[in-house]
Structures
1.
Amino acid sequence: MVSGVQPTGYLHIGNYLGALRQWVLHQEQYENLFFVVDLHAITVPQDPKGLAEATLSAAALFLACGIDPSKSTIFIQSHVKAHVELCWLLNCVTPVNWLEKMIQFKEKARKQGENVSVGLFDYPVLMASDVLLYQADLVPVGEDQQQHLELVRSISKRFNSLYGKKKRILKEPKPLIQGNTSRIMALDDGTSKMSKSSTNDMSRINILDPPNTIQRKIQRCKTDSLMGIVSDPVGRPECTNLLNIYAAFTNQSLTQAEAECREMSWGQFKRVLTDALTTSLEPIQRKYHELRKDEDFLRQILKNGSDYASSIAQVTMQQVKDCMGFIPIH
Ligand code: AQP
């Protein structure tokens, strides 16, 4: 299984519940590669210092959240050169009109106007390289990545039919769809996704937010004037989202959390939610700060990870280049 996080800002509880926490569970079940996708991050403008810091911070959070480097491979995408190399080769088999259909491109391009880069357009092909390079069977995806994964499968199929003759060169990975936590919504708007790159820090809880910041954000988050804390995705999106977050951080189903909170006032609910968040995030934050004190240790884990990932990637690259007619170095 492969999965990644973009260092486009500090990781939030959506990234934790939708990705990192699931990854920890998956590491007992699958052979995993988890990486910080810094090459993807630059498809929208990034400040270089901010990118470097966010990259190391994300890698440290992988470990702090429980990814064990003796069970899973952790690395930085740009440290394995084959991602870019395979991306170029796949670019040459991917029809432009497939990429033109990508909803995420259309949405991000609309926001960026004339400055939209070729890289943003090509984002899904780089994602295809990330996955196909390691011959992954499974890719955990939230709702918004499902279209991209379908494209990855189409690219793989097309590559195999053009170059594979009777052999399958690249695998067709399957999506691993998450449950209720696959889409954690923003604190200021229960209908839009919690996001790292939103300019409003009050719209999200970052994994590294100290307790007083978490308290302030929950205190000021958008609510409604109705009685009772119940799930009603259409009528009460903010309430449903907060209940969903509470359920996830107290390891309950949504139904169980609703039974516990149904009679609470907003004030009572915000207190228990703040407690659940601060208590769950405290050990992660402690581990994170320890790791950031020993950068050599972190960098060594990342180096081991990229060495191992490169060795797998090389096998795929050789097969891909051979069947496309590239001459190997003598
Ligand atoms: N709000 C979310 N709820 C649940 N899961 C989420 N993920 C992201 N946001 C939520 C999951 O986190 C993983 C890494 O995501 P990404 O780095 O590719 O970023 P993204 O999905 O584009 O959203 P972000 O983190 O908010 O970043 P920006 O602002 O840069 O778009 C993925 O598994 C994703 O599903």
2.
Amino acid sequence: MCQFKFVILFLFCLAFTAEKTDADWWHKKAVMMVKNQIEKRGVHDERVLRVMRETPRHLFIPENLKDVAYEDGPLPIGEGQTISQPYIVALMTELLQLRGKERVLEIGTGSGYQAAILSPLVKQVYSIEIVKSLSENAANKLKKMQYNNVTVKWGDGYQGWLEHAPYDAIIVTAAPDQVPQALIEQLQPGGIMVVPVGTHFQKLKIISRIQGYEIREKNIIPVRFVPMVHSEKTIYDSNKLDTIE
Ligand code: SAH
């Protein structure tokens, strides 16, 4: 009987250690990711760095890419779309200068990772995704992971989300040719929008709304994002073109 108890205790310890090791593997990688890829390139907002260390990026990408989840690059998330490089996620988040009370609009929910990064840093996140399956997956995942202040909607980001406007900050994670007017109108005066603008060569810009519809633009760095499209169909068309040999 005593031996039996010992075996049970041993198995319990083994299971506990395996679970702990699993949690450890990604946390160590996330810490290294922040140190080597993000801090070294000049992102220093401690609140942003902390969420980047504590958010399980591997849970937002396909299971077979888990091992490369914390590496220095973008990754595919299905439907021809990508999750941005960790440094770009951190940089864009830092540029929004969030203090905790903001209501933020994100265009391009994708995997939901950027929304998960914003969640603990603000009061409320509204996120729009044009591909239905991506919006549904991200909404389910974020709910399951208890990101309770994130609301995802399937729709066209060019229209913004008038119902909850104005926003203190807007983050656009797909590239439009020019800054969409509806988004400027839905930005609170004094608010900040971070957006990659352009076709092949894009610039990451900060748009500050001064007063009225007057805006100030500042270029940050050259970037490459997937295009911000005008309908879900455009995405499927461009996917078909990509696979023709
Ligand atoms: N922020 C995402 C990555 C975004 S990739 C993440 O953290 O995973 C860009 C996303 O923008 C894609 O999912 C794409 O489908 C979406 N998108 C493109 N055009 C859009 C539009 N007009 N409105 C809303 N989403 C759009």
